[in-house]
Amino acid sequence: MVNIQMVFQRRKYLQPVFAAAALYILLTIPLTSGPKEQKNANSNICALRATEEPPKGILPVFAAAYPGSGSKMTWNLIEALTGYWSGDDWFINGRNETVVSIKTHYPHPEGRVPPLSMRIQRALIIIRHPMDAIPSYHNYLYEVENNAGEHSVRAPIDAWIQWRDANFGREITMWKESIIYWMNSYPPGNRMVMFYEEITDIVKGPLEAYKLSEFLAETETLESIGEKRADCIWHAIVNYGSNTVATTETDGDDEEISRRKLGLRNDERESANIKALRPHSAHQQQHVHMNPNSVKRFLQYKPAPESRRSGGPKYKPYTKYQLDHILEVLRELQGTFHESEVVVMFETYIARVLQSEVSE
CA 124 to CA 74: how far, in whole Å? Predict the structure, then answer.
């Protein structure tokens, strides 16, 4: 005969065990969603929204680089990662100081120290091999001189050689001084060094974008976006030429667009009047004045520097003297910052110089 009292006692004893087992199953078995829900989730992760003005009182970071080092690409990346405006040291886009980052080429004559520089506590330092950065800067000057579109053409070899021989000494010095100035201005805890060669690399690039998001998230009111979204944004902004699609948000709806269409239309780029205001020498800098309210604000998504340039060769030659000078500068910087984050990449830079062919 079954002892009813014993059965009830056993059931009472086992109830918490069953409850714990059920809770374990609920927590460990992943919840699945239908195809539509999964598609919407992925779409939201990769959605790009139009940038807007950040909250009042936000303290921006500097995005500092020698000209031709990927500043505009980084500008676009920062805006996509944060959803907020970036600006520049000349306030050319009319955004003044209410931005998440301020692009600057200071101490190069193309840049200046903005009025609030003493308040800015952190800096992103962008470095590109001088063998590429200097020709990229010359391409920009050639475009301005010939009234060509920004990032549209590469200077022909004869124009490069003439400009190189007249300006190389000054420009390699400015490249070096730019790194020294920003590395000495901000200690390791208040800076992030980002190399053009890594942010544009198909393997390292997405991780660099995530690191940049983490660095920016140290600013009050900003948040890190996570590795998956950083990967999507990197592909949309930096690796825009592939076949993968990104999305932009329009009135709350996701509209698929190709990465190439993230670039501005010709009529949305800087007007000729704005271009004329950009300084090209220290002398001109002293006489530049403009009304920020007169400048049209627009979404700054544009392809990476040089990605659409055509014409002259992408890699420009140097003489033996110039290569030796570059080598000397790199070794000097490596010694000066021997315990910093630039040492390993500068070894790669040095190796490339040593393997380069000499131009006559």
Answer: 10
